[in-house]
Amino acid sequence: MTDLNPRARLAGALLLSSALAMIAGAAMVVPSGLTLNPADPAATLAAVDQHAGLHLAELAVDVLGWLALTAAGLVVAAGSAEAPRPYLVVLAGGLLSAAGLAGLAHDAGNLALTQLAHLAAPPQLAQPGRPGQLDQASAVAAGVLLTAKWLVNLAGLLWVAATAAAAAGVPMPGSLRRAGVIVAIFGLAGVALPWTTGGEGPSVVMEQAGYALHLPVLLWYGVLGGRFVRGR
């Protein structure tokens, strides 16, 4: 039997895969304390070095999620001609891909942190000729962490904008469209949280609250992707 809409099914599979990967990644890092808060770089480096395997596994899952989101955005934009308001579908797809690329840049920073954590580990510091290595590694880690955190904040902002555009332009039932508007508000609140702290930066509790506020966005894309896969 010929698939009458393979593009929508592919977009749905990618959106569903991305949402599942993101939720799996969050489930790995939040309970283990590997949210990588830049407020205490030395403690963050120690946690990453202690749980290096888990950290790398979570990064692998997260990278797959951002890659799937990037590809989904491209596929959604490519199918815009089939929608009543194609310009909004192109906008939604472009914003989704931009969010995916920002997320991949965020993960690149977190991957670099793995090697910094190894350099700052006690056995490495004990080697001759490395005085002040921990202070140097902590200073570099603080810069990497801050950059990575604001990149994922940018990814979240782009994702929220994509959600609003998708809810307005992508063909879907009215109930799902209204839900898209609501989850976009939740996501925007999650993006705004770090901006309320001024120069201090978000605490671990605030970061976890941000994860919780983005969860409805992930679930909405999972539902939307599931509908696309079923051809509805």
From TrEMBL:
Entry keyword set: Membrane, Transmembrane, Transmembrane helix
Q: Does the keyword Membrane apply?
A: yes
Keyword Membrane attached: yes
Any transmembrane segments, and where?
63-81, 88-106, 150-172, 179-197, 209-229
Q: What is this protein called?
A: DUF4386 family protein
